[in-house]
Amino acid sequence: NAGVTQTPKFQVLKTGQSMTLQCAQDMNHNSMYWYRQDPGMGLRLIYYSASEGTTDKGEVPNGYNVSRLNKREFSLRLESAAPSQTSVYFCASRQAATEAFFGQGTRLTVV
Amino acid sequence: QKEVEQNSGPLSVPEGAIASLNCTYSDRVSQSFFWYRQYSGKSPELIMSIYSNGDKEDGRFTAQLNKASQYVSLLIRDSQPSDSATYLCAVNPSSGYNKLIFGAGTRLAVHP
Description:
heterodimer
């Protein structure tokens, strides 16, 4: 019963470093999402993928890139990390317009 | 105008009371609506989904949808201290069938 698995759980980066956040789901869902959550801001959509092979920008895509590697995996890349990208990142997946299931989150700090 | 708006709170209610949480959305033709609960440091978890006008009840929780007025609400009856959390409203906008947009969340505090 893994559901949605994110790695890593915690990460500290220096300004300008790059990294990739990994997400995998085992529920055979078509749609996958990346959100960031800052205090008092709720969840803001960075990118989403409606199906394998497609990706679309969300509300706050600047500074990020994504790859839908296959139906199971959806990665988020920070090419040159900035302190403004310090946040908690959540990956989610769902089938069509039904409920989304979330991973446990990645707490990222950029110093 | 934000796509999904919620009062950030905190909303403070005594144990046993009814907590009423509200959410408004800007896209008149949005189709699917969700309420999630999030405890501090944890991931969001679904409480209710609602797709058509009217009320939907599940235990102590009732979701109410009014598409004409573009709001969705969540009522929690017999509130318990364990209900203290942030409640997030989420909407599927017509601009993208697979998009899922969240409000900023309302913090609920239930005091004994």
